[in-house]
Amino acid sequence: MKVAIVGAGQLGRMLALAGYPLGIESRFYDRSADTPGGQVAPIVTGEFDDLTRLRSLARGADVVTFDWENVPVESLAAMRAFAPVYPQPRVLGVAQDRLLEKTLFRDLGIATPLFAPVDLRSDLDAAIGRIGLPGILKTRRFGYDGKGQARIRRRADVDAAWQALGGEPLIYEGFVDFTRELSLLAVRSTKGETAFYPLTENVHEHGILASSRAPCRARALQKSAERQVGAILGRYGYVGVLAVEFFVARGRLIANEMAPRVHNSGHWTIEGAETSQFENHLRAILGLPLGSTRARGHAAMVNFVGRLPAPRRALAVNGLHLHDYGKREARPGRKLGHATVVEASAAARDRALGRLLRLR
Ligand code: AMP
Fold first, then answer.
1. pLDDT grade, residue 79 (50/70/90)?
2. Residue partners of 108: CB distance under 8 A and separation at least 6
């Protein structure tokens, strides 16, 4: 079984690693060979719009997938002449544009923050008039890890936000005064088999995921999240892992965004679930039976952003699983690795989380 993975970041690397025990051969595509994925499996290098090279990658594969959300949809669509591409490129097209994404949520009856498209400065004033303050101005496309966002707390912030982001298509969202952030990971195979992981509770710092804990046991929220994410799967006959991030406000879920791929908030599943999100993504896109998504215990995951702890220090923490993505260059805001612990109780897990956080 041969899988072509467009984008060779840490997500692709963990996909390839999950494939090895199953005899799944991965081959990457990225601009440079010295990438987290390129260190663990063969890689073809080229630009993401070089259709000739992309097609040659797809030609030898049973299925094509991607680990990066900004792959041009047209490139993936062109590869479909040679191998199926999952998740479906048209879902990626929706996820790449915050306005299309929130419109999809609204069409499916999924609650979202109040939002309005903003192209001109006058649109921003009108959006603030309608939705109110505080809010967040975001670029519709190419925003990730808190980039391309400006908080608008009061009128005096409007000019600065417009100066920072104005000129490209934007969306203004009402600020959600949330108590918690949760994500739900779903997986659906080419055969229509569907499974959901338990809800994960996430903490972000400066727009970047800092830590996750799972399972987050909240029966009513789990049911509601599964219903909502199930509606998205159903709309597209979706194939692969799909992650949806929610805010919890007044006990209700409000959808923030979706990612049609494996997701950082699911890294705990490598050691903390019976089948990891990476293995289940591969099983799903290859039409294999899905593995159980049950939690094996209580897991916590901490991201190492900008700096990795010395292995000697990290590995001294009892039960810690260290993941170093092999990135040669440490830059502020860059995810370099993560660590996970799995404990028998939620209380022990929370104590272990404290130890992980102190490694940063
Ligand atoms: P995003 O890139 O949309 O996932 O935003 C990154 C983080 O910024 C989220 O995980 C939240 O912590 C925060 N954030 C984004 N949008 C909102 C919003 N409408 N209300 C409150 N917080 C938000």
1. very high
2. 228, 231, 232, 235
